[in-house]
Write a structure and sequence with these properties.
single chain, alpha+beta, Chemotaxis protein chec, 6-stranded antiparallel sheet, two-stranded antiparallel sheet, 6 helices, 12 strands, globular
Length: 174
């Protein structure tokens, strides 16, 4: 099958980051590619345990240093720090007309570290901003992850399916 990832591109629109989907054991240009979904419980303090299948790769790739930020779709974006640093530079260079989008991504960004128990703390502000409570879905999206409230992710996916296949994917098939 031909590689059509270039048709999807690195950025579908101003605010949605898309990664090439390959197994999480594959390395491309030193960046791990993550896929899969996990249902995870947050503890009373808002800590989330990173699934073991991703934890080792994250520790290897970024020493457990990650960045979490808000996305206007209603989820959190979870980046290995080197991946985030590339995005941060691009976002910071956006023109003044994109100042509100910079505020969403940069203003909500929080640098965290995976602790010795394999957990990260999601701040109360970020949990509240996207409606996270006890259960979350941790979704591998190539070079980064999304963290969703399960019902919000289900509604978002149903809306996407109802809207039909976007033109950019018309030539894609399995």
């Amino acid at each position: 099958m031909p590689d059509v990832s270039h048709k999807v591109g690195i950025s579908v629109d101003l605010c949605r980051f898309v990664g090439k989907m390959v197994t999480d054991t594959t390395t491309q240009k030193g960046i791990r590619m993550f896929q899969g979904i996990s249902l995870i419980s947050l503890d009373a303090k808002g800590r989330m345990t990173i699934p073991s299948r991703h934890r080792e790769a994250l520790l290897e790739q970024c020493g457990g240093r990650v960045t979490i930020t808000r996305h206007p779709d209603g989820c959190l974006l979870f980046f290995p720090r080197p991946v985030w640093e590339d995005h941060r530079k691009k976002i910071a260079a956006w023109p003044m007309s994109a100042r509100a989008w910079q505020r969403i991504f940069l203003g909500n960004a929080l640098d965290v570290e995976i602790d010795s128990a394999g957990r990260i703390l999601i701040s109360p502000e970020l949990r509240e901003a996207v409606g996270l409570s006890r259960k979350v879905k941790f979704v591998g999206m190539g070079g980064y992850f999304e963290i969703w409230d399960p019902s919000r992710l289900e509604a978002n996916e149903a809306e996407a399916v109802a809207a039909g296949t976007p033109d950019v994917l018309q030539e894609f098939s399995f």
